[in-house]
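For the sake of clarity, the format in which proteins appear in this thesis is described at this point. Each number in the token line that follows is a code from a learned vocabulary of backbone shapes. One such record is shown here in full, so that the layout can be seen directly:
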Amino acid sequence: MVLWHPPDAPWVKLDTNGAFSILTLEAGEGRLVRGSDGGLLGAFCSPVGASSSFEAELMALIRGLEMAMEFSTHIWIELDSAALVTLLSSRQLGSADLRQHMALILSLTSQRHVRFSHIYREGNRDANFLAGRGSRPCPDVL
């Protein structure tokens, strides 16, 4: 069983996900920020101009970081993309088509306490739901 666990104070937990449909070429992103009590601080979904699921994941993370930075300088980022967690943990820029996104993420995280971890899709279902809705605009949840 995969369970989501709240972070210890003063950390906030950011869960993000990007979705991309190869049939429609539409992409969306979802993001949630929760506090140490597990309470929802903010959630959002929107369409993104991505050309792959990996790029949609990166764009969701960038927007999610911007949202999480409003609440804390200690951000635990939980993603269901193990490949993205590995790339972010290495602090490398990755392939040429991803470098602009990766450079922005590294810049946003450079002055903060940031932790990256992988969570299986079952534990990230709220962000998955929002990412799926992201191809259609939806209002702020909070």
